[in-house]
Amino acid sequence: MSFRLAVRPEVDAELREAERWYEQQRPGLGAEFLRAASKAMARLPENPYRYPVRDRRFQVRWSYAKPFPYRIVYRVIQETVVIYTVLHTARHEHHWQKRV
User: Fewest 10 Å CB contacts: which of 9, 48, 50, 85?
Assistant: First the structure.
């Protein structure tokens, strides 16, 4: 089965905010973060069921933008992988629930 990727509009702002923060920590680190997050998101359609369901009520799963402490919260809906948020692991996980 072939899956397509859909990314909520809010995700871009979250990625840019994290990129700016990392760039302030060390020049070039923001770009590294964006590459890691983009790579992790791009791999999801290959095998979206690779990661377990983390919240049964919403049927969301998450992967990580390794080595950065950000989780990519997504759900598989028919043949589409929908990314709801890219969230720092220290943030409360219910942040994304209003988007589902």
Answer: 9
What pTM, to 2 d.p., does this model score?
A: 0.88
Mean pLDDT of successive 10-residue segments in the chain (100 residues)? 92 96 97 97 96 91 95 95 93 65
Nearest to 36 by CA among 10, 68, 13, 69: 68
Residue ranges of the domains in the chain? 4-89
Instruction: Tell me if the domain spanning 4-89 has CATH number 3.40.367.20.
Output: no
For the chain, the straight-line distance linking the first and the last C-alpha, in angstroms and rounded, comes to 24
DSSP 8: -
CB 33 within 8 A of CB 65: yes
Distance CA 89, CA 85 (A): 12
